[in-house]
Hints:
By secondary structure, the chain is an all-alpha fold. Helices cover about 60% and strands about 0% of the residues. The protein is built from four helices and no strands. Helix 2 (about 25-35) packs across helix 3 (about 40-45). The protein starts with a helix and ends in an 11-residue tail after the last helix. The mean pLDDT is about 95.
Amino acid sequence: xxxxxxCFRKLLGARIQEIRQNKSMTQPELAALxxxxxxxxxxxxxxxxxxxxxxxxxxxxxxxxxEIKELFKFK
Length: 75
C-alpha cells in the first residue's frame, strides 16, 4: 500500500468521524442508516483501515446529511 493512499484514508476517516460526532451520532447509528450490519466497519473506515467504495462514501454523506464534498474538506 502506498503511503499517500494511507494518508488519504486516514484524513477521510477522521473527517467522517468529526462530522459524525458533531451531529452527536454514534457509529452504530451511522451503520444502521447506511445498512451495515456490523457497526465496527464504521470504526475501520474512520481509522483509515479500509478503502471505501464511492457508493459507501455517498451513503455516509447522505446519512450525515452533508454534501459529499464536505467529507473531503480536510484540515
